[in-house]
Amino acid sequence: MPALPALPRPPLPSHLLPGSLRQRIGERLATLRIPDFTVPAPVAKLVSRLPQQPPTHVLTLALNLALDRILPRDTLEPLSGRHLQMRVLDAGLTLDFTLGERGFRRATPAAGARPDLILSATTRDFMALALREEDPDTLFFSRRLRMEGDTDLGLLVKNTLDAVDWDALKAKLLGRHG
Fold first, then answer.
1. Is pLDDT of 1 > 90?
2. What are the φ/ψ torsions at residue 83 (nearest 5 degrees)?
3. Domains with residue ranges and CATH for the chain
């Protein structure tokens, strides 16, 4: 049976747009800010009653995509085997995860066991942190990002986020090279 021909690699979404439109969208994205918002309480109440595994899976998938690309595994070694928890306060989410040999995965907390590190913020603040609209120090000192537990792990997470070259990553995603 003959081998099937290789399929052409699809272009990045940014390459599908004409140059001037791509540039205008890039400029708008550069100045776009996340508005202040809070997830409505009835939605948070409902979400808090739903299984937390699906959103935890999405979080660990995103972290694993970043692992070794923008998050250096050797720097994150102290997180290995540690129980980490992310609380999205206004959305009613509690995401338990850990870093193992094969990357990030959902953690199953032992009854009564406290996570090694708990990061708490609102949906908006986590989004602003991820998009670099806010830095961890600003959120922390304004009490919008809370870290509980092992302060050395919290400092490691903060320093790792600060060390990522977000501008290079953004340029790559927008199709601007060099």
1. no
2. -85, 115
3. 41-169 (3.30.1050.10)
